[in-house]
Amino acid sequence: MLIYISTLEKANIIEDVCQEKNILVLKGIVKKNFNFFLYSNLQSEFENVDYIVIEIDSLVTNSEEEIINGIKKLKMFHKMKIIVICNIEEDKNQKIISRLINELKIYNIITKTEDKEIKEELKNLIMNNAEYKNISFLNIQEQKNIGVLGIKSGIGTTTQSIAITKFINFTTNSEQACYIERNQSEVFENLKKYYNLKEENNSITYKNVDMYKNKPRGYKYNIFDFGNIMQVQNINEFFKCDIKIIISGSKAWQMNYLFKTFEILEKVDKKEIYFIINATPEEEYKKIKKAMGKYKRNTYFSKEIKNPFSESLDNKEIYKEIFNSLEIQEGKNEIINKKWRRKIGKI
């Protein structure tokens, strides 16, 4: 017997598979609160169930923690096989998949997006008692998104974004970070043409920095270059980042843009935002810090970056402070094979 909780679209697929394989559907529930589903009168029925299929995207009223805890209890107290349908292309789902695998040791995860492929994998899991242990699943990591935004064009946002990517890769002695162009600067295309770089799956690599037009999978740290705050297409994407950095200058004609940025920030209730101030004489530090108001504690002054692709890492001390919460480990770390990243391409 089988129970499922899913969207109507996936419910049709599950019902088709069960009908085709003569499996009794004890109960099918469409888009219901997961907690209610677990603690309703289904508890007694769970004992006779062989399979439970859970589509993560149907649990719209539940938090990540509620979903993980609910599945954990199912695994602890019932012998049924747990099959999860989860769209890996959704950012929020990547963390859930990582936790299912690493915390709960659940590998029966269908991440395909095409109905035909979902149906085939579901049949395989049910009829052949298969269990997925695909290396791409086992190595999936919780991704951290770092957003970099400038108070105006030409202030050094791209330079800092590339330097941050270089810093993380240099510090970890691996390719855990990538640069993602989220603006209209065409840095990606200009670099590709100037250095005659080969593009593969919307990606180029220069001086060991992988650069993308769209967010890829497989990197632990994604550095988004959002460009000019006054021209950014979706500022909410910046605010959703784990680490948010705004690049500014300190010249008199730049300060007005900084104050306009403060006005934008006042309209949103967000967590910590860091400021990196470029090209500022040391004797001006105290004056600029005062002007930063409530942001002064998270304000850092950048050394001149002549070449962001350089190994010199002039700003490594301020980067260490800003990224302290990410616990970036020094040395060689295990990451997903780069060939796999190239193969799966963009999200």
Would you kindly provide a written description of the structure presented here, covering whatever features stand out?
The structure is a single chain. This protein is of the alpha/beta class. The protein folds into two domains: 2-138, 3-Layer(aba) Sandwich (Rossmann fold); 144-344, Rossmann fold. The chain is 37% helix and 18% strand. The protein has an eight-stranded mixed β-sheet with strand order 8-9-7-10-6-11-12-13, sandwiched between helices. A five-stranded parallel β-sheet has the order 2-1-3-4-5, sandwiched between helices. Helix 1 (8-20) crosses helix 5 (115-127). It is elongated, with a radius of gyration of 24 Å.
- The CATH level-2 architecture of the largest domain is identified as 3-Layer(aba) Sandwich
Specify the oligomeric state: single chain
Query: What is the CATH domain class of the largest domain?
Result: Alpha Beta
Provide the β-strand percentage band: 15-25%
Going by CATH, what is the homologous superfamily of the largest domain? P-loop containing nucleotide triphosphate hydrolases
Order of helices and strands: EHEHEHEHEHHEHEHEEEHEHEHEHH
Number of strands: 13
Integer tally of domains: 2
Q: What is the CATH topology classification name of the largest domain? A: Rossmann fold
What is the percent of helical residues? 25-40%
> Unreliable segments (pLDDT under 50, ≥5 consecutive)?
332-347
Separation of the first and last Cα atoms: 36 Å
